[in-house]
Design goal:
With about 425 residues, this protein is an alpha/beta fold. The chain folds into two domains: about 110 residues, Urease, subunit C, domain 1 (Roll), CATH 2.30.40; about 300 residues, TIM Barrel (Alpha-Beta Barrel), CATH 3.20.20.140. The chain is about 25% helix and about 20% strand. It has 13 helices and 18 strands. Helix 6 links the parallel strand 11 and strand 12. Helix 4 crosses helix 7, helix 7 packs parallel to helix 8 and helix 8 packs parallel to helix 9.
Length: about 425
């Protein structure tokens, strides 16, 4: 068993706790919160972290959308490097996409993902394929996958485009209370696009992905949800009109939730002027107006969750002409910092989008900050200023535009599955 850890003079962030916003001392021992008190506390032999009234401790952060492409593409990321990246980003739980080779579509594959959690304090949650071979044609064996431990169903990096399959999925998952996650995209409008369709794409001479592609895909899915019932989670919304459609659907009582990738808060299509392939994403970086709409939707609750949309790519996939480069960037290490720096939200409004909301959507228990509870905690400084360097990234891949960019807020450690980590050198 790991050495006990004493967190001194830390701010407790847990609205359900009587210690909420209090400066307290927390002792972690044998995987549990052994003591939580505002009184002085000293423990012989414990590793001591003095928060000095600046460090905060909250329920452990959960990333609802990340790609760990093992098996098949371990040279880009495997579960060991993905766990290291998650730790640097403060995530104790990470929901992983099914876009592996072969896809995450069997009971054995679900068990494999679950087994990777035994490597350390980061727990991996399998998002199983919604369609066989991620082809978007036939429904996967979702009932078996659910009983094996899949937490939701999605084709991940691909939209489920076949209308009849979306309908069947919404119907089929209802008896088990299952969640269907989908990208809002009309493929026939987006498949040849390289960036957001607008003035920037015209100036750069690149084919555009119109906002209409997201809107049409989303409008269809919401109409099917209204017709069939069920639970729908919309992944990686990026347009003002798409956000308004979700806002209206919620007002009408539909069981829909939504997330946004945190890098959409920091960058727009104008940032592609120098053809940086690290900013080639799907959905693409949108306009400044869309970005403003995202911030407004975060503030009013239309967007429930912020995700990393971590998508590691090796150099051979990124150091290419823009139209040949693969999509995606790594973001587990920097997702919270991007949100803290660019969302405009208070800490009280921001943290539930990393803690309470993703667990509510997945139907997972909420960690409690009370004595005797099994610890699922993230230790962080919400206001520290830092500038990432290449050496700060634990991911095997380095496809990120963030080295050299000043950020605010950083995770310093985590406690989960009876283990802990402290990001060495960041808190002493």
């Amino acid at each position: 068993m790991d050495t006990p850890v004493l967190l001194q003079n830390v701010i407790v962030f847990d609205p359900a706790s009587p210690w909420h916003l209090a400066q307290a001392n927390l002792l972690w021992a044998e995987g549990k919160i052994a003591r939580l008190t505002t009184e002085p506390l000293a423990v012989a032999g414990a590793t001591v972290v003095d928060g000095r009234g600046a460090l905060h401790v909250s329920a452990g952060w959960l990333d609802l959308r990340a790609s760990i492409p093992e098996p098949g593409l371990e040279h880009k990321e495997d579960f060991a490097s993905g766990a290291a990246a998650a730790q640097r980003g403060g995530f104790t739980q990470v929901a992983v996409l099914p876009n592996t080779h072969p896809p995450l579509q069997t009971k054995e594959a679900v068990a494999f993902v679950r087994s990777r959690s035994a490597l350390g304090p980061v727990e991996f949650l399998p998002l199983a394929a919604a369609s066989t071979d991620l082809a978007g044609d036939e429904m996967a064996e979702m009932l078996d996958l659910h009983h094996a431990g899949a937490v939701a169903f999605t084709d991940g990096l691909l939209p489920v485009y076949k209308t009849s399959l979306v309908l069947k999925t919404l119907l089929y998952l209802q008896p088990i209370g299952g969640l269907f996650m989908n990208l809002a995209d009309e493929k026939s409008l987006s498949q040849f696009g390289q960036m957001h369709e607008g003035l920037a794409s015209t100036h750069l001479g690149l084919p555009g992905v119109p906002a209409l592609a997201e809107v049409m895909g989303l409008r269809r899915d919401l109409q099917l949800l209204a017709y069939a019932g069920g639970r729908l989670h919309v992944s990686c919304l990026s347009t003002a009109e798409g956000l308004q459609l979700v806002r209206q659907a919620k007002a009408e009582g539909l069981a829909v939730t939504a997330d946004v990738a945190t890098y959409h808060l920091a960058f727009t299509d104008e940032d592609l002027a120098d053809f940086d392939t690290n900013l080639k994403t799907k959905p693409p970086l949108r306009s400044a107006d869309d970005q403003a709409a995202i911030r407004a939707a975060l503030a009013d609750g239309t967007v429930d969750v912020l995700v990393s949309n971590h998508l590691p790519q090796d150099e051979e996939s990124k150091v290419l002409e823009f139209d040949l480069a693969d999509y995606g960037l790594i973001n587990l290490e920097t997702s919270f910092a991007l949100a803290r720096t660019y969302s405009g939200l208070s800490l009280a409004a921001l943290l539930p989008k990393f803690t309470e909301n993703p667990r509510r959507i997945l139907g997972l228990p909420q960690p409690a900050l009370v004595e005797g509870a099994l610890a699922n905690l993230t230790l962080f400084d919400p206001d520290v200023a830092w500038t990432p360097t290449v050496k700060d990234f634990a991911s095997k891949s380095k496809n990120t535009p963030l080295p050299g960019r000043p950020l605010r807020g950083r995770a310093l450690g985590g406690f989960h599955q009876r283990r802990y980590w402290l990001n060495s050198g960041w808190w002493q």
